């Protein structure tokens, strides 16, 4: 067991969030085309672009399901958020299988995770998706790919219509539309953490 630095969001929706993925515009973008071991143990810099690590996210959810929140902003300055009431990542023996259910109907971000819940994690050197090829190779990231994705948070951060960019298919709950994103955070906290207003969120692509 070793100490791990994490990004704690103490303001959004009452705080208490552990950020396990952060994507943002910065001078040197982090390469998210990584191996299984790198996604297991994490990479990047806390406070900048980073992935906490599947093993640590599993440990955080092993004692009980967490609440997941995704905050995002597109290149037009539009901001959205989504909340899932039950989030869990299983252990490595189960290839860090994802559970992301109980999507909140109040969310302004569509349920792009519906397609991914129940999937095992895939990387460029370990393919667990349902695609005849490798989604990780095709879309330049590591993720709970299906055939292949409705959300691609670990893709290339660029203002592009290409599906290998950081993006979300259901940019709004009722609209099947791809949006490339300039900023995205995925974060978790225990259930029943206060009674805040979930629409109170951060995120600004204009800030460093």
UniProtKB/TrEMBL annotation:
- One Pfam family of this protein, by short name? Fibrinogen_C
Say yes or no: keyword Disulfide bond present.
yes
Query: Got a GO cellular component term for this one?
Result: fibrinogen complex
GO biological process annotation, one example: positive regulation of heterotypic cell-cell adhesion
Q: Please provide, alphabetically and separated by semicolons, the GO molecular function terms listed in this UniProt record.
A: extracellular matrix structural constituent; protein-macromolecule adaptor activity
Matching entries from PROSITE patterns are given as: FIBRINOGEN_C_2 (PS51406)
- What name does this protein carry? Fibrinogen C-terminal domain-containing protein
Record domain Fibrinogen C-terminal: where: 1-192
Where would you find this protein in the cell? Secreted
Q: Which organism is it from?
A: Cherax quadricarinatus (Australian red claw crayfish)
Keywords assigned by UniProt, alphabetized: Disulfide bond, Glycoprotein, Secreted
Which PANTHER family does this UniProt record tie to the protein? FIBRINOGEN ALPHA CHAIN, FIBRINOGEN C-TERMINAL DOMAIN-CONTAINING PROTEIN
């Amino acid at each position: 067991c070793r100490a791990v630095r994490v990004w704690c969001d103490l303001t959004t929706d009452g705080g208490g969030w552990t950020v396990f993925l952060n994507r943002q515009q910065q001078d040197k973008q982090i390469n998210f085309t990584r191996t299984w071991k790198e996604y297991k143990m994490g990479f990047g810099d806390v406070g900048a672009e980073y992935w906490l690590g599947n093993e640590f996210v599993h440990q955080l959810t092993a004692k009980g399901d967490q609440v997941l929140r995704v905050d995002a902003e597109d290149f037009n300055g539009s901001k959205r958020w989504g909340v899932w009431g039950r989030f869990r990542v299983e252990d490595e023996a189960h290839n860090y299988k994802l559970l992301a259910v109980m999507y909140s109907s109040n969310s302004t971000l569509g349920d792009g995770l519906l397609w991914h819940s129940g999937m095992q994690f895939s990387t460029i050197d370990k393919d667990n998706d349902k695609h005849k090829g490798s989604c990780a190779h095709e879309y330049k990231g590591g993720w709970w790919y299906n055939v292949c994705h409705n959300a691609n948070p670990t893709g290339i951060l660029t203002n592009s219509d290409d599906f290998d960019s950081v993006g979300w298919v259901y940019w709004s709950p009722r609209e099947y539309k791809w949006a490339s994103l300039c900023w995205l955070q995925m974060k978790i906290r225990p259930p029943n953490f206060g009674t805040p207003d979930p629409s109170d969120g951060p995120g600004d692509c204009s800030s460093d």
